Amino acid sequence: MNILVIGSGGREHAICWKLRQSSKVKDLYCSPGNGGTLKEAVNVEINVKNHSEVIKFCHEKKIDLVVVGPEASLAVGITDDLEKENIKVFGPSYSASRLESSKVFAKEFMGRYNIPTAGFRIFDDFQKAEEYIKSVSMPIVVKAYGLAAGKGVIIAETAEEAISAAEDMLVKKMFGAQGQRIIVEEYLSGEEASILILTDGTNIIPLASSQDHKRINEGDKGPNTGGMGAYSPAPIVNKELFDEIMDTIVRPTMEGLKNSKIEYKGVLYFGIMVTSKGPKVLEYNVRFGDPETQVIVPRIRSDFAEVLMAAAEGDISAKKITWDDSEYVCVVLASEGYPGKYETGKVISGIKDAEKQKALIFHAGTSFSGTEIISFGGRVLNVVGKGRNIKDAIEHTYKAVKKIYFDGMQYRKDIGFRALPKKRIK
């Protein structure tokens, strides 16, 4: 089969890397891709915002399957437009994508179907938001209404911080139209876990558990990012907790979608907070997580292309995924200043030396300048190592990290720290 992957990050490089291992895949394209996807696919310059251009490319190259990586493309209905042209797509429809593109839609959906989540209020008026914030206890969470590249969530320790965040979104328009409404939400304490499923709208294939590290600094301090690292499996998700998540969150979500007459084909990501009162949903994502994908996909032993195609065709009932028992850790190498302003064009060295440490290097914000690989984004590289256990995987990953250098390179030195004190329960 011929496949087009849409996206340019570490997630898309990992997806291309895994698809290339399938004997069923003939021609593999990535648009726009990055400096790493070139190893697995042909990078093509398509204006993915212009769906007619994507459709034309798919017909010209006889594309059998399109795999959509970023949420932004899904949120504007690329799946709907391609399917109208009989092009198979792994990714949910515009209607289903509102679970991520509209936090208001998602929260109201959870409320309608009794899916456990944090209490919340919705505001489009700054003065009313300010008045409410002053009346509640801290900490509290302020969220932009729409997509904000993982940065539209502010955990405020004080009322002043929360009011400032609300003002940035509603008055200063920091996130443009995506922040024209905000959610002021109860702060949930506990430990986070990421649960992803593949679905054809009826059947479910759960993927391996993982845990992301959202904050920029060690100890989960500082502002939120798109993700600074991940590991899989997440020891906190033992069998008992996994079954509870499936029974109280995953299956009710799927039933809610059916009752709402929303067809969902693709991957559905559940950001879970494990609280003292049980697991609760922090957020839905309607695509593979980034960097969770970088630690989940390498553990898959099955033919990834076959499973994604089956989901796109609407029937995964005959498919199974088998898993590598090794544990994986991903450390994200970011540009200085990220998640704020940062410079690009920094020459990257040491990637081949890191690969000699048996690490996988998934490119995110990279490009080429002549024969040199240079930084081209906030999150630049993903260094992925494996081990017999989490401690072993952490050691292997950081050995590889130390081989890589670019000016201003920053990374967290504690990825996986929450997994170390726990015993894995199978």
Write the layout of secondary structure elements.
Layout: E1 3-7, H1 10-19, E2 28-32, E3 42-43, H2 51-60, E4 65-68, H3 71-75, H4 78-84, E5 89-90, H5 94-101, H6 103-112, E6 120-123, H7 126-135, E7 140-144, E8 153-156, H8 159-170, E9 182-186, E10 191-199, E11 204-206, E12 211-212, E13 215-217, E14 221-224, E15 229-232, H9 239-259, E16 266-275, E17 278-285, H10 292-296, H11 304-313, E18 327-334, H12 351-355, E19 360-363, E20 366-369, E21 372-375, E22 379-387, H13 390-401
Parallel strand pairs: 1-2, 1-4, 2-3, 4-5
Antiparallel strand pairs: 6-9, 7-8, 7-9, 10-11, 10-16, 12-15, 13-14, 15-18, 16-17, 18-22, 19-22, 20-21
Through-space gap between termini: 36 Å
CATH class division of one domain? Alpha Beta
Which class of secondary structure composition applies to the elements? alpha+beta
How helical, in percent, are the residues? Answer: 25-40%
CATH topology of one domain: Rossmann fold
Low-confidence segments, given as residue ranges, are none
Largest sheet: 5 strands, parallel
Query: Measured on Cα atoms, how large is the radius of gyration?
Result: 21 Å
Q: Please state roughly what percent of the residues sit in beta strands, choosing from under 5%, 5-15%, 15-25%, 25-35%, 35-45% or over 45%.
A: 25-35%
Q: What count of helical segments does DSSP give?
A: 13
| Strand arrangement, major sheet | 3-2-1-4-5
- Shape by Cα distribution: globular
> How many strand segments?
22
**What's the pLDDT, averaged over the residues?**
94
In the CATH classification, which architecture of one domain applies? 3-Layer(aba) Sandwich
